[in-house]
Amino acid sequence: MSGASAAAAAPAEQELTDGFNLIIDALKLNGLDTIYGVPGIPITDFGRMAQAAGIRVLSFRHEQNAGYAASIAGFLTKKPGICLTVSAPGFLNGLTALAHATTNCFPMILISGSSEREIVDLQQGDYEEMDQLAIAKPLCKAAFRVLHAQDIGIGLARAIRAAVSGRPGGVYLDLPAKLFGQVMDAQKGKQSLVKVIDAAPAQIPAPEAVKRALDVLKSAKKPLIILGKGAAYAQADDAVRNFVEKSGAPFLPMSMGKGLLADTHPQCAGAARSTVLKDSDVVLLIGARLNWLLSHGKGKAWGDAPKKFIQIDIEPKEMDSNVEIVAPVVGDIGSCVTAMLDAMGNGWAKAPVDWLAAVSKKRDENVAKMAPKLMNNNSPMDYHGALGVLRTIVKERPDAILVNEGANALDLTRGIIDMYKPRKRIDVGTWGVMGIGMGYAIGAAVETGKPVLAIEGDSAFGFSGMEVETICRYQLPVCIVIFNNDGIYRGTDVNQSGGADPATTVFVKGSRYDKMMEAFGGVGVNATNPDELKRAVNAAMDSGKPTLINAVIDPAAGSESGRIGNLNPQSALKKKS
Questions:
Q1: Cα gap 281→252, rounded to integer Å
Q2: Is the pLDDT of residue 153 over 80?
Q3: What confidence category does residue 6 fall into, taking pLDDT thresholds of 50, 70 and 90?
Q4: Burial of 43 (0-12, 13-18, 19+ CB in 10 A)
Q5: Three-state DSSP class for 329?
């Protein structure tokens, strides 16, 4: 046989792939093109390879903040945000964000490298050995482990579908170190990948449920619609707006539901919250839960007037969680609201005019009462003077995304700054957790390309402040305003023992957080009055440069736990004294 004939008869060299490449290909196949994480053993090379393959990989200083960025990416895009961590301690750092995502119904996938099963199961003491899957399961919506390269496609597909279908939430995907280096035939590897089809199918409500809900709403003398962050997540903005306007009922937006209809809309009852909760007789919840944020639907906040509740939610088990729901409507918000809108027809009688007029009167009174407080130019500033100028800036820049956390900085900002478009206000959510600020700011800037204004309490900023280096490294258009009153709640507390240690709620006096941003090449500004604050924020938003403004607030400004001081139990002995 000739040499040419022998070469022709020889089998072609087999093309191979490995776990690294299969994970990258699976992510790209499903349109997941951004990863938030912290590099380290055993995922350092994976991050490098993903970046080389065209995936954007953002490296953070702490996994919890990377996880918060991934979670808010999920909220803003309706695709699962991806957080990548190392094993054991790195996994545990990311787990807080995963649990937060699940509680808030944000789709997110935490992918962590882990020790090999045979070593973990025998507890033989591997590097960062931990049974991560078992730990993750109680804290997320679903948890999966992939042991073989040929199962990577299915594993990621299951994680994606679990994260976004039904009520969205967090999913854990465990990848043992040995998986990354597993080799298989490239063609078979490609065939093993799965492109998820219709990951979050519409959940159509039952016609009888829609009719029941509308019958209850029609009977109302004082109806109220509450819009939660679930309504914002649904991105059914036109349907929600048309339904609210057709109903004629006042609406109360929850914090991250603000902007679905502008806070300046004539039906908005945000500035008359106490009145509408107390006096309403029928309450329709759209993507909102009757949890602690709504006093569980009962008690003093809801007054003595008997209430009937209608609830739209994709999760049937949510119904009757605190009080009886007389008209449950189960399905995705877009389908439910559209079905109700269609069933209302052309002859729908709007909510009684006198009810809306009474709500409007109370709202206008409260707004007028607040207005003078927002006009002061005190130095040092109080919260109202500072927020007065930021309120105007947000009105002039409705496309900017507002990130907000703190105690007083959170509660007062939520009530003072109006929002005009949906999904432009993101904050601490269901848990009221501190530390989301920089992660959210980074995730929002990356996913939307819009400028971000982060209004932070000085205490809240401390949880994620090192990520200002990340903001500078990626040159993100983030302006951070720290309301610095030298402490938690206020900076005037004293050590009751008379000892040398400062009180537990007091920080270093006169701290200059702006110098932190300057250290990493960003813009730092120290603002001592509202006029200086206004100029600095406008300059930052115009330039798009990473900026941190140290807004000096009177240390005596602020109240204990903002508006939820009632959740901070007092000593029985203190009460008696």
A1: 14
A2: yes
A3: very low
A4: buried
A5: strand
Query: Average pLDDT of 186-197?
Result: 98
Question: How does the average pLDDT of the chain come out, rounded?
Answer: 94
Nearest to 228 by CA among 306, 324, 309, 311: 311
For residue 510, the 8-state DSSP code is T
Range 117-145 average pLDDT: 92
- How far is C-alpha 549 from the chain's CA centre? 23
Within 345-429, where are the H helices?
A: 353-370, 383-396, 408-416
For residue range 202-212, list pLDDT tens digits in order: 999 999 999 99
**pLDDT at residue 442, as a whole number:** 98
In this structure, whether the domain defined by 207-363 belongs to CATH 1.10.357.140 is answered with no
What is the rounded distance in angstroms from the CA atom of residue 171 to the CA atom of residue 136? 9
Please say whether the beta carbons of 74 and 101 come within 8 A: yes
- What pLDDT digit, counting tens, does each position of 466-491 carry? 999 999 999 999 999 999 999 999 89
CB atoms within 10 A of CB 528: 15
User: 324-355 b/e with 16+ CB inside 10 Å = b?
Assistant: ebebbbbbbbbbbbbbbbeebeeeeeebeeeb
- Kindly report the backbone phi and psi dihedral angles of residue 38, in degrees, each rounded to the nearest multiple of 5, phi listed first: -130, 125
Fold topology of 16-192: Rossmann fold (3.40.50)
Q: Residue 134: its pLDDT value, please?
A: 96
pLDDT surpassing 80 at residue 34:
yes
Q: How far apart are CA 413 and CA 420, in angstroms?
A: 15
Using the structure block, give the residue that is written with the tokens 């600020």: 437
* Cα distance between residue 519 and residue 330, in whole Å: 52
Residue identified by tokens 């679990």 is: 162
Q: Which CATH class is domain 376-565?
A: alpha beta
Strand partners, 241: none
Q: Amino acid identity, residue 528?
A: T
Query: Edge-to-edge, what's the strand order for the sheet holding 478-484?
Result: 425-427, 401-405, 452-457, 478-484, 547-552, 523-527
Query: CATH topology of 207-363 equal to that of 376-565?
Result: yes
Q: Is the pLDDT of residue 173 over 70?
A: yes
* Residue 212: count of CB within 10 angstroms of its CB: 16
What pLDDT is recorded for position 569?
A: 75
Torsions phi, psi for 480 (to 5 deg)? -105, 125
Residue 576 pLDDT level (bands cut at 50, 70, 90):
low
- Where do runs of H (alpha helix) occur along 520-571? 530-543
3-class DSSP string for 9-55:
HCCCCCCEEEHHHHHHHHHHHCCCCEEEECCCCCCHHHHHHHHHCCC
Spell out the domain ranges in the chain: 16-192, 207-363, 376-565
Residue the block writes with tokens 């399905």: 331
What spatial distance separates the first Cα and last Cα of the chain, rounded to whole Å? 106
Tens of pLDDT, residues 318-342: 999 999 999 999 999 999 999 999 9
CA distances from 167 to 11, 319, 378, 451 (A): 51, 13, 46, 29
pLDDT band (50, 70, 90) for residue 11: low
